[in-house]
């Protein structure tokens, strides 16, 4: 390893900050360019989604860099989905079958700040307010724009790690240089964040240790807890159509929509109508590109390589897992960057594609399928099968959230398991009616 070699990281979001920390610790001279101001010094929005779900893959990465103890104090465990049915009934559907199988709500800003502090403490230099406009990979220079006065300058960049999110400038440069391909598949549904403030005593106004969901078929509202007793609620809704953002243009329309579909949540949301119109409507989409790197000069990771829709709560977790994969490649190939990036891409691309597909599928599950009694039976049955065959049958959700099995493998096994569950529940209305002898045969044959 050539300690002191220069690496430029573009973007100091969660993935860029984690990569900078890791690479600085390995002895590289790391400079990070981040277009936004420093969120530790200036009050700015942390960007999309105020809080996010952190699960095992992200936790594994944070443990490896020794930050989990510090991050721990910002976490709120969520044991399951609290379903708010149309009639007002509540059901807590546990995420896993074991007490430790929980996911955590974490503040995006606090997590990002913790990572930036740690990266700087390891010697990385973060330059805020500089946007990377373009990269000349042949000359090894970045063109930066000063977000304050619009001034431009070219700087030498060494090896470039593109962690600049869904609209990545580094991805653009890599795809152009390699004659590669990129595809941004924008979902027809967007999102809007609203706040449920703490109660008058500062406590939570709904169950604290759950991810709340109001599934309504074509759309849904969700809410994740924050350490100050509030919840961040997010409405996921079509941009166009009968029930859509386009159809909600007046205070009356917004109030009627919330009172009709979310009557228990509506009175809890702070300044519902004014917040609804003041807060932006976010876009959601899936980014796929190939290749991810160019001749050992630049590589993309995190959302820059594989932005996904948020319905599996895995985008950041997957980006953090990229670091674990990169670490393995650097351990094998040192600073032979061409080999490092090629093997990194070869290993991660199938996993990124798999979680992108599973995240899209999970939207249907969250907003719709959870209401189906067959879904609940399959969930119960999959836990029973996991108890009986722990090495061969693990529910897909658990494989993604609580295990470190590659996403592509979770996806492959999940499809076989879904076929087994379909067959076993076809004519069963409850667990008592399931043919467990047949289950044993199917699992022996297929898994
Ligand atoms: C509504 C919503 C909810 C989500 N919930 C979850 C969840 O529960 N769990 C989960 O794991 N994931 C979740 N995600 C996904 C998660 O937000 C992303 O996967 C994660 O932020 C990716 O991190 P990143 O560092 O790769 O990219 P980003 O977070 O996008 O960070 C990129 C950084 O690069 C900077 N930048 C961009 N362009 C340039 C440029 N040209 N020059 C310099 N700097 C630049 C940006 O300012 C930013 O700081 C959610 C996403 C959304 C939209």
Any overview of this molecule?
The structure is a single chain. This protein has 447 residues and is an alpha/beta fold. The chain contains 14 helices and 20 strands. It folds into three domains: 6-78 and 107-185 and 285-362, FAD/NAD(P)-binding domain (3-Layer(bba) Sandwich), CATH 3.50.50.60; 189-278, 2-Layer Sandwich (Alpha-Beta Plaits), CATH 3.30.70; 372-446, no CATH class. It is 39% helix and 23% strand. The longest helix is centred in the C-terminal third of the chain and has 31 residues, at 337-367. The protein is globular, with a radius of gyration of 23 Å. The structure holds flavin-adenine dinucleotide. Flavin-adenine dinucleotide binds at residues 10-16, 33-36, 48-49, 52-53, 131-132, 163-165, 169, 191, 234, 282, 302-304, 310, 313-317, 319.
